[in-house]
Specification:
The protein is mainly alpha-helical. The protein has seven helices and two strands; from the N terminus they run αααααββαα. 73% of the residues lie in helices and 2% in strands.
Length: 171
């Protein structure tokens, strides 16, 4: 039995410090953030859009998609560097709220999409819903869209800090 959620969590725990180290080493924040989102888009997209048969391939792609979530941790450094000291706590709090709200919005949205895309509702004797794989694929497009939006925002709308606090950045 496979627990996909532990793959995602463990890969994020593994990748976050590595992405942070690499980002600091190359003195860039926005590019690694965009790259991690794009990698998440590719790996989750492969799982979602293709009929993959090997469980190990799917597990590796899910692990990579989870590792791509490590960009979220990098966003805190970016926020710290792009805001004046008197604004930093508020900016970080807004980022935290956005993370929590996204989970609170996306999960019920996927549930609603599951119901909308499911033509026939089948129930088990315990009254649990049964869905076809295609219904999950359509519903989970929301996550794929999230990766794509994150990659676009990081690439074209986030100011590169070069790992410098805003006071130290060239004007």
């Amino acid at each position: 039995e496979c627990d996909w959620s532990s793959d995602v969590c463990s890969s994020d725990l593994f990748a976050s410090p590595l992405l942070g180290y690499w980002s600091t080493r190359i003195q860039k924040r926005a590019m690694p953030l965009a790259l991690s989102a794009f990698i998440g888009f590719l790996s989750f997209g492969a799982v979602l859009l293709f009929n993959l048969s090997g469980i190990w391939l799917i597990a590796v792609l899910i692990f990579i998609a989870g590792a791509a979530c490590s960009g979220q941790a990098l966003s805190f450094s970016l926020i710290t560097e792009n805001n004046l000291p008197k604004q930093r706590a508020t900016a970080i709090a807004i980022n935290n709220v956005a993370v929590v709200i996204s989970g609170a919005v996306v999960q019920p949205l996927i549930g609603k999409l599951l119901m909308v895309f499911s033509a026939s509702h089948q129930h088990t004797p315990q009254m649990q819903m049964l869905y076809q794989a295609s219904v999950f694929r359509y519903s989970l497009i929301v996550i794929l869209a999230g990766y794509l939006i994150a990659a676009i925002c990081a690439k074209w709308f986030i100011k590169e800090t070069y790992c410098l606090q805003i006071e130290q950045q060239p004007q």
